[in-house]
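Worked example

This section walks through a single chain of length 806. The input is the sequence exactly as stored; nothing has been trimmed or padded.
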Amino acid sequence: MPELGKRTIRAIATLFVALVFTSSACSDEDYVRLYQTSPHAPSLTDEAIQKLDHLGATLVDSGANFGVYSENATRIELLLFDDPEEKLPTRRIPLSRFGNVWNIYVQGVGVGQNYGYVAWGPNWPFDDDWYPGAIHGFKADVDENGHRFNPNKLLLDPYAKALHRDHDWSKGSLASGPARAELTWSASAKSVIVKSEYIWSDSETTWRDNRKQSDFSGHGWNDLIIYETHAKGFTASAASAVDHPGTYRGIGEKADYLADLGITALELLPVHEKPLDGTYWGYLNISFFSPELSYAARRERNEVIDEFKWMVDQLHQRGIEVIIDVVYNHTGEGGLWREKIDDVTLDASADLLNFDPKEVASIYSYRGLDNAAYYALSADNQTYWNNTGVGNETRANHTPMRRLILDSLRYWVEEMHVDGFRFDLAPVLGAKDGDPNTWDDPKNTVLQDIIDDPVLSKYNSRIISEPWSLQHFKLGEFPASSASDTVGWYEWNGHFRDVWRSFINSDEFKLNGNEGAVDVGGSLTGSAALFQDDGRKPYHSINFITAHDGFTLYDLFTYAEKRNGCSPLNPVCCDSPNSPFCTRNDGESNNRSRDWGADNEHLKRQMIRNAFAGLLLAHGTPMILGGDEWIRTQLGNNNAYSTGADNPFNWHDWGSWQPNAERKRMHDFVRKLIKLRKNHSYALAPAEYAKGAPFSWKTASNTDISDADWSKKHLMLHYYDKTAGPELLILFNMENDSVDFTLPTGTPWRRLVDTQSYFDTDAYFTKESASTDLSANISLDNAEAVSGTTYSAISRSIVVLEGGVP
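Given that input, the structure is written out below as tokens.
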């Protein structure tokens, strides 16, 4: 298997650098012409040659091109393994350097090839006497410039599309320091060259064509109704009634449930490859191209990719978009944060949580390829900026990471057909390179690159930020597209969450809420104060009350304080209270939660219905936490992320709600409320501020609301224009007493929704001889006419009336 000659390599790599890492890129025609000037170039098609502008391993006719980025390495070798479990590789091939790209083309390499890299640099220069497991040339585990090169550690390709397994710690430690000479060539996961064999369905072709249209019916920018869940936990329970529980295939098998619920987009917690200690939630990733192996029913080669595609195909066939949570702000390489001491033993001013010595760090990939180029290092270059809370913060606006982010996003859109992304701790991506504590003008950062990217824009990809990090709270400050007046960053609206939790749970919290830019009225109408000034729209507000990070809805109304210590959700705290995964003191303390009483389940369910009503009746994009629709609990744990929390108490317990009438009624209520929102989208889901169905705020006596009225806990919202659609009247009453609302005249009214607990009691179902499996709190097809000129909304309830029906 002879390699190409040096002139050929130079032609490939030099032009690759020009195309990818400089501002003066060559045209495709220049690329082909320059490549073909080499007398050693094989006979490649133009299409094959153009594939060489990719980092990673790229199949090209009879071989593969390998490209990897490093600014500070002095030598990089490609290791090829015919057997990925062997101690030594089949071949070791030095790469050639052109600029900061290291490159080699190898003929005879194809699908299924296992490979990895080893690298030398200033802290460990290459020595001719070195051999695997030796320390010849070693100077320091980390030098004054932050370099952590170590040739004894096999490195994952940052652009690998699949890994052959997780790291095998029994064969070798990834750590530097005392384990610096411990060889991981056999122990490490190998990057694998793969080629998907999945054949998309005919309907997928139609779906992809439709995704290019911004007015795709049911999937316009303002049509999203998001359901957030965990890729494994959604179906891991034996009661989930799928053939492949806890997998991508299991999600596809459960697609009918999601379609019946009525959501239009499924948002999955991270699905990128994570290490063994990457936690249950999966926010510690070591590859941004490879799907997580443990979520696949079959875990060989491209079968993981094909299974993910099958899941996407199944969801698309049912009209459900796929959004994935992505974590480009830090990685899961570990080290320098692994051990903690008991917080209660510390002086209040002490800062001893990072207890590993600086020499000890796990070396999976980026750290060993170029620690200083991929990561945001502290002032002394020995540790890392920590605006993420978990260390290993990336240099998101430096060359390799900035390019990797865009390449990864494009891969998941083009190859995997993903419809959108939620960006974890997104302000880190807006940090000024070299000064992570400074929020840069988004136009200078990858944030603008993402929202303007032509590939993402082509398919109208949903781009969603979690707009806070440890250092920055940037809600309302993410950019709109510079190319389209309808495209911009969606943002998780934390103010909406806080306002509605307080409005429902607190006796003192009034309509104005004293929440700055967002009060109850603002939250119901798209939080214009946050998004309108930069040209964004109501739908750019992702409205939520609960998410994976925090309480479930049931727990929000059941626990006054978090319970994150020893419990079934966090068993590590029972046995190892000093473990970094013991979350007894982690998690948000200002939950705005309330215990409504152990013997008051009817009222708790009323509060849950209020939360769903506030969420689904508000302008903006609603996001539901998976399982809330059937009253899922996490037993009071509001930070159930740890590896030990990957257990049946944290999975969706399908067996707990399907036999339970109260939970079935909640599911029915949510399902019908989603349908109500869709039926009245002209009022509830406007695409523009002040251009949807006109409305007015009213007092209970049907007069225009005054400033003084906003200091109360009740109001009436009237969509009065009959030309837009049927009139809607929404009565909000979070007072401690009932309120009689005077109804607008000129139209008959019928009740669609009343969240009060009476309609959810045995007394009601016995009196009406009604099915106990269906919610009587909502009726869309046979709604009851309202008699008289007033409607009494009981304490802490929400009512929806529709006009124009005799």
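What to look for: DSSP finds 21 helices and 26 strands in the chain.
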